[in-house]
Amino acid sequence: MNRIAIIGGGISGLSAALRVHELAAEQRRDVQITLLEASDRLGGVLQTEQIGEYLVEHAADMWITNKSEAMQLCEKLGLTERLIPTNAQFRKSLVLRNGKAHPVPEGFQLMVPEQAWPMVRSPLLSWRGKLRLLAEAFVRSRRDGADESLADFVRRRCGDETFERLVQPLVGGIYTADPEKLSLKATLPRFIEMEQEHGSLIRASRHQPRDRSRNESSGTSGARYGLFVSLANGIEELVSTLSRRVAEFADVRCSTSVRAVRPADALNVGWALLPVSACTNADGQECPSYEHFDAVILAVPSFIAASLLANECPTLSAELKRIEYASTVVVASGHKLADIEHPLDAFGLVIPHIERRKVLAVSFTSRKFPGRAPDGHVLLRTFIGGALQPELCDLDDTAVLELVRRELHELLGARGEPDFVNVYRHTRAMPQYYVGHLDLIARIQTAVAQFSGLALAGNYLAGVGIPDSIASGEAAAGQVMKRL
Ligand SMILES: Cc1cc2nc3c(=O)[nH]c(=O)nc-3n(C[C@H](O)[C@H](O)[C@H](O)COP(=O)(O)OP(=O)(O)OC[C@H]3O[C@@H](n4cnc5c(N)ncnc54)[C@H](O)[C@@H]3O)c2cc1C
Question: How many angstroms does the Cα of residue 102 sit away from the middle of ligand 1?
Answer without folding.
Answer: 32
